[in-house]
Specification:
seven-stranded antiparallel sheet; alpha+beta; 22% strand; globular; five-stranded antiparallel sheet; 470 residues; 17 helices
Length: 470
């Protein structure tokens, strides 16, 4: 221990925190469900310092736990309980290195807060489309390392689709300079995609070249109240057809989810019937004038209104109203934490299987765990549902002592998704909590290739140990 700390203290451009109180916020995740211990919290100011830190840890056999904004929900952003490793947090590396509107690109350091990147793009009249509830605190490096999804995947893709190039420090301190902004580069393996989604197990992302887009001149945001599973799914299909290439978000909230938000989030309000089965938040954007967009939306919704599938709709007529509608979606986690104990499942299935999954999962929950309320929120356009079994605190206290309850529930829902060609992790990643699920659902050939890659890049197994791979 003294050897690694003395070596770290000799590295220029490094802040080292060992005080227990100062380290405490970095040792527990934001939901306070996962915690660990560490020798020190290390905060480098540049890539050279990161390289020196990893070289020292490699030579001394010290585990490294990379940490961004600590917004993970899978236990991947806090150290293990051994206390033998260090936390490497890049919060001090938060510079915008370059922005080029002509190239539609921006180069940022990994510690940049996502919202800062969005604002920098907007200052150049460009759009960086990654958006999620934690955008005011999550860091770009963590977004890339976990291949974040967010609300714009339907139109713009996951985080890896927004990455043009990377600067990465490998486990032994080697720096890979891959900060290219090329859209086409067919010269061998695409190494950047190794690190997007690797959750810090292959190296530490220190900077990224990201794609920007022209800012759509007009955006239309609407929330619809719908009756029945089939109706809301048909409505989403209709909107995709009516606005080809222009739909940037199709977010779904069950009635149970909307009720939780209205009950627990200060200032939340809904100008729609509160007894609808589903609420669909839709956003379309493009060069079409707002009046024409509204007319096209009205035409697209007319059959659903006439059939009674859509009960009502509200359009945002200002940025304030748009923010209020998005606030209902972005504050679901805040509401759920206050409601009770929510067991969240980040599943994805093919679009055609969304309805069957909701029906099958609801039937299983009603039969096996009737104390739980199904709460659903997700990205309808890309098949990603956060299916939550919500228990009141009293009901959870009554059932939580049953051996294997959580694993039984998780496997039941993941089995349903897997049988439909889906996955147990759509956008949250693997972290530490899904290690057994990797062994259960991943083909052995995939695991073998992943292990071979990790062995090559992290031969001592020091990078975020206990994450991703069983």
């Amino acid at each position: 221990m003294s050897d690694i700390l003395s070596r770290l203290r000799a590295i220029p451009g490094l802040a080292i925190v060992t005080d227990a109180d100062d380290m405490a916020p970095h040792l527990v995740d934001w939901r306070r469900r996962h915690s660990g211990a560490a020798l020190a919290l290390v905060l480098p100011s540049d890539t050279a310092a990161v390289s020196a830190v990893l070289r020292a840890c490699f030579e001394t056999g010290t585990p490294v736990f990379p940490q961004g904004g600590n917004t993970s929900v899978c236990g991947g952003s806090v150290p293990d309980e051994s206390g033998a490793g260090i936390i490497l947090n890049l919060a001090r590396m938060n510079a915008i290195r370059k922005i080029d509107a002509d190239d539609d690109s921006i180069i940022v350091e990994a510690g940049c807060i996502l919202q800062k990147v969005q604002e920098a793009a907007a200052s150049a009249d460009r759009l960086f489309p990654m958006s999620l509830g934690a955008e005011g605190s999550c860091q770009i490096g963590g977004n890339i390392a976990t291949n974040a999804g967010g609300t714009g995947v339907l139109r713009y893709g996951n985080m890896r689709d927004l990455v043009l190039g990377l600067e990465v420090v490998l486990a032994d301190g080697t720096v890979w300079e891959g900060l290219r902004t090329l859209r086409k580069n067919n010269s061998g393996y695409d190494l950047r995609n190794l690190f997007a989604g690797s959750e810090g197990t292959l190296g530490v992302i220190t900077a990224a070249a990201l794609r920007l887009f022209p800012r759509p001149p007009h955006t239309l945001t609407a929330m619809l109240a719908a009756r029945g599973n089939d109706a809301v799914l048909a409505l989403a299909r209709q909107l995709r057809s009516a606005f080809p290439g222009e739909v940037s978000a199709l977010e779904i909230l069950s009635q149970s989810q909307m009720a939780i938000v209205l009950r627990h989030v200060p200032g939340a309000k809904l100008a729609l019937p509160e007894d609808a089965d589903w609420y669909l938040l839709a956003e379309v954007s493009g060069s079409t004038a707002p009046e024409a967009l509204e007319e096209r939306l009205t035409d697209a919704l007319a059959p659903a209104f006439e059939a009674g599938a859509v009960l009502d709709a509200v359009l945002a007529t200002s940025e304030r109203q748009r923010g209020e509608l998005w606030g209902l979606r972005h504050h679901v986690t805040e509401g759920n934490v206050k409601e009770g104990m929510g067991l969240t499942h980040d599943i994805a299935v093919p679009l055609a299987q969304i309805g069957p999954f909701i029906a099958a999962a609801g039937a299983w929950l009603a039969r096996e765990l009737p104390q739980a309320v199904p709460v659903v929120v997700g990205h309808l356009g890309d098949g990603n549902l956060h299916y939550i079994a919500m228990f009141s605190h009293a009901d959870w206290a009554a059932v939580s002592d049953k051996p294997g309850l959580t694993a039984h529930l998780n496997h039941a829902l993941y089995d349903i998704a897997a049988a439909m060609g889906g996955t147990f992790s759509a956008e949250h990643g693997v972290g530490s909590i899904h290690i057994a699920d990797m062994a259960r659902y991943k083909p052995e050939a995939e695991l073998r290739m992943m292990r071979a890659i990790r062995q090559l890049l992290d031969p001592k197994g020091l990078m975020n140990p206990g994450r991703v791979l069983p």
